[in-house]
# Entry
Amino acid sequence: MPNYRYRAMNGSGELVSGAIAAQSAGEVARRIETLGLVLVETPAVEEAAPARSFGLFAKPRAEDVTVFSRDLGLLLHAGARVNDGLELLSGDRDIGRLRPVVAEVRSHVLAGETFADALAHYPTLFTPMYVALIRVGEASGSLDQVLEVLAAERARAEAVRRKLAEAIRYPAFILVAAACVLTFFLTFVLPQFASVLHDLGAKIDPTLAMFLSLSAFLNANFSVIAICVVVVLTAAWLTLRRPAVRTALVVAFTQLPLVRRLMPYYQAPLFCRNLSVLLGSGVHLTTALRILVDIMATTGPADIWSEMVDRVRHGAKFSDALSESDALPPMAVRMLRLGDETGQLPVLAGRVAEFYEAKLQRALDRLVGIAGPAAIIAISFVVGGLIVSVMTALVSVSQLIG
# Structure
């Protein structure tokens, strides 16, 4: 939606100017009249401003948006106006790095834009679902309630993400620590034995010979390898900052066999929780499904979700389209079908989300319980086998000397 710059005169005869997001100049003129202003020149399309980019240490966190939503909802519930609430929050340290963005959102609101249109300027912070719900809240006069619901659901989603991160962190830490120990052993410890074993003509088995060759290669090219590792890590970090690359990697990651088994436990609560929030806030089913397509596209291929929305748009029942798409587990489809038939879809969608969130937590607990010990056992076999090979070579040396 384009932005139109306008100049108008208020009741005191003062000139005011600003920008309004609208479909046409005629719509801008109508909105200006409702504000009690008189246009002095035809509104012109404003050139799009470059998207705001955040530095490495200046990017707002998802938690900042959650705190902003909760606090603004409380202020509005207490009777404050939107621009007054934004003014108060723009200086609140609790929202952290989001304060400059809140100040800019307030300037857009004072220029005549709706709160939802002002938030839409920052799609990386405020998702299409967030903006759609804010638009519904503004239209229905329940913006404070919508913000409180958004804050609660964002807090719940952040808790799920923390559980996923904690489930991955432990095995990843063990593997990284093991890699560091093995690298230290190969570059500093094993070379001490290599020259002795070769000089004394020790009997070296194939396993030890492989590790000795790897150790010699690492020591001979340590500087080059270190530079290459730094370059690769830097390039990977810069590449992963692109949303398209991250989405492609997520889609590829979800195709792994183990991940594919766990994905329904993640996709089902994500889809059902957001569906419950959207429908409970008064969003039409078709509109809610279009918003959910963008959300679910970040968890895997979006084709199945798009096909489901197309079926609903062409007259199919939601439950039938969902069962044909095979996007969710059968139990979730049955529960949503029951909600669709009884008119309790928002309530049952929320219960399905809670059910599968519990299943996801149990699955993650089992995965962590298996992955941690399995990683330790694998590392023990590698290091233990290497030590046995070295000791066997030393024993052969002592037998030769004896």
The chain has three domains: 3-46, 62-126, 142-402. The beta strands are 3-9, 15-21, 38-39, 44-46.
